[in-house]
């Protein structure tokens, strides 16, 4: 965890690193970053700043997702974790085709993922 001024505006963000739990092999656990920005009263989650333009992270996550699909066939034991995080990244990038988040609503078992996906999908404009 560290304080860092990512956008050089003189206001520090809080950066909290984590890893996406895909399997027990640490080499295949992409890093996730939670970024909090100061809104004048409190630090609030602002992952959009990091994930909207971070092509390296998206490429690594998609590469690991594809590798696990090929390795395990069409079934991935952690499929909902992959799809949830891919859905978040695409959401932060302004993608208006939320197929990963919709998949979470239909197939995920983890309530936290389902609740987050529902909340994000409500914020998207109607087609």
Rg from C-alpha positions? Answer: 15 Å
Give the biggest beta sheet: 4 strands, antiparallel
Main-sheet strand order equals 1-2-3-4
Q: How many angstroms does the end-to-end distance come to?
A: 39 Å
Strand content: 15-25%
Q: Report the strand count.
A: 4
What string, H for helix and E for strand, traces the elements in order?
A: EEEEHHHHH
Tally of alpha and pi helices: 5
What does this structure look like?
The chain has 127 residues and is an alpha+beta fold. 46% of the residues lie in helices and 17% in strands. It is built from 5 helices and 4 strands. It has a 4-stranded antiparallel beta sheet with strand order 1-2-3-4. A hairpin with a 4-residue loop joins strand 3 (31-38) and strand 4. Helix 2 (55-72) packs antiparallel against helix 3 (79-92) and helix 4 packs across helix 5. The protein is globular, with a radius of gyration of 15 Å. It starts with a strand and ends with a helix.
Brief characterization of the structure:
The chain has 127 residues and is α+β, with helices and mostly antiparallel strands. It has helices at 48-51, 55-72, 79-92, 99-107, 111-123, and strands at 2-4, 13-19, 31-38, 43-45. It has a four-stranded antiparallel beta sheet.
């Amino acid at each position: 965890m560290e304080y860092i001024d990512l956008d050089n505006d003189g206001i520090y963000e809080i950066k909290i690193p984590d890893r996406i739990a895909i399997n027990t092999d640490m080499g295949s656990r992409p890093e996730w970053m939670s970024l909090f920005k100061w809104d004048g009263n409190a630090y609030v989650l602002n992952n959009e700043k990091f994930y909207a333009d971070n092509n390296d992270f998206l490429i690594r996550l998609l590469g690991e997702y594809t590798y696990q699909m090929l390795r395990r066939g069409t079934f991935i034991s952690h499929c909902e974790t992959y799809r949830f995080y891919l859905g978040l990244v695409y959401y932060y990038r302004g993608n208006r085709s939320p197929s990963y988040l919709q998949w979470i609503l239909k197939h995920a078992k983890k309530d936290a993922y389902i609740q987050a996906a529902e909340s994000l999908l409500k914020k998207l404009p109607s087609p």
